[in-house]
């Protein structure tokens, strides 16, 4: 009887410790929004516009609907199996300890490494443009590695630090995009009359394959939802 009480107390302590170290709801939302705005909006918008052409906004809407269904499955899985395992946990529950689980987990890890490398190098290139340094083969990778190291230090600091940094970054990104959008609209002199009288021939150059490719890239812009998988907020 005493052993059962000790086991029950241990389970309660572990649950309290899990909640203490978990992200808050605001932190989880900020982290997902920050990832989507950073990698998706800044890195993929131009490519989606090039592929989808005048159907650029529709491509993002279709991608949002598809990502919404994916997000719903993640919600149901995280509620049924609260774990910090993320995608690996989902694959393990679906296929068990199998070659499919191991292979898909490795592919996900490799894709995240490539994605982080791309974003980090883009950060280095954009940063040098701010200071008019010009092309420099050493500074770009140095800044990229510095960004990855900074992200690593934030991650090992714990979920509280991650949540706080995510909130600050989300506010800066959303505010920056809002200011940029307003300034771009003001500089372009675009008005509602010009938008409604745009020639219908603008969509003639859009192909079905180009639109589908644009939707596929736009889905990557919503990838922040999978970064919150397994990070059940308290």
Structure description:
This protein has 234 residues and is mostly helical. It is built from 10 helices and no strands. Helix 2 runs parallel beside helix 7, helix 2 packs antiparallel against helix 9 (208-221) and helix 3 packs across helix 9 (208-221). The chain is globular. The two termini are 32 Å apart.
Spell out the blueprint of helices and strands.
Layout: H1 2-20, H2 25-52, H3 56-80, H4 87-95, H5 99-130, H6 139-156, H7 159-188, H8 192-196, H9 208-221, H10 224-227
Helix pairs in contact: 2-7, 2-9, 3-9, 4-5, 5-6
Spell out the key features of this protein.
234 residues; mainly alpha; Amino acid/polyamine transporter I; 10 helices; 79% helix; 0% strand; globular
What is Rg?
22 Å
Percent helix: over 70%
CATH class: Mainly Alpha
Q: Strand portion, in percent?
A: under 5%
Largest sheet: none
Number of structural domains: 1
* pLDDT < 50 runs, ≥5 residues: none
In the CATH hierarchy, what is the superfamily?
A: Amino acid/polyamine transporter I
Number of helices: 10
Give me the CATH architecture, please.
Up-down Bundle
What class do helices, strands and sheet pairing give?
Answer: mainly alpha
What's the CATH topology name?
Amino acid/polyamine transporter I
Quaternary structure type: single chain
**Ends apart, CA distance between termini:** 32 Å
């Amino acid at each position: 009887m005493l052993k059962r009480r000790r086991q029950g107390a241990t389970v309660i302590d572990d649950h309290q410790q899990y909640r203490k170290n978990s992200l808050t709801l605001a932190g989880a939302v900020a982290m997902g929004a920050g990832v989507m705005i950073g990698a998706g909006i800044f890195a993929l918008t131009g490519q989606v516009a090039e592929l989808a052409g005048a159907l650029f906004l529709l491509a993002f809407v279709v991608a949002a609907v598809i990502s919404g269904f994916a997000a719903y499955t993640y919600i149901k899985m995280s509620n049924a199996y609260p774990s910090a395992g993320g995608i690996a946990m989902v694959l393990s529950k679906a296929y068990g300890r199998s070659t499919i689980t191991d292979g898909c987990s490795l592919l996900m890890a490799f894709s995240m490494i490539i994605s982080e490398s791309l974003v980090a190098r883009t950060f280095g290139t954009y940063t040098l443009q701010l200071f008019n340094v010009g092309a420099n083969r050493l500074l770009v990778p140095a800044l990229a590695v510095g960004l990855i190291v900074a992200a690593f230090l934030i991650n090992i600091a714990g979920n509280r630090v991650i949540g706080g940094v995510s909130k600050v970054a989300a506010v800066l990104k959303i505010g920056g995009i809002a200011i940029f959008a307003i300034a771009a609209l003001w500089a372009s002199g675009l008005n509602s009359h010009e938008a409604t009288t745009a020639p219908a021939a603008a969509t003639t150059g859009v192909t079905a394959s180009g639109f589908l490719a644009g939707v596929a890239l736009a889905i990557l812009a919503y990838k922040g939802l999978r970064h919150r998988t397994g990070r059940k907020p308290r």
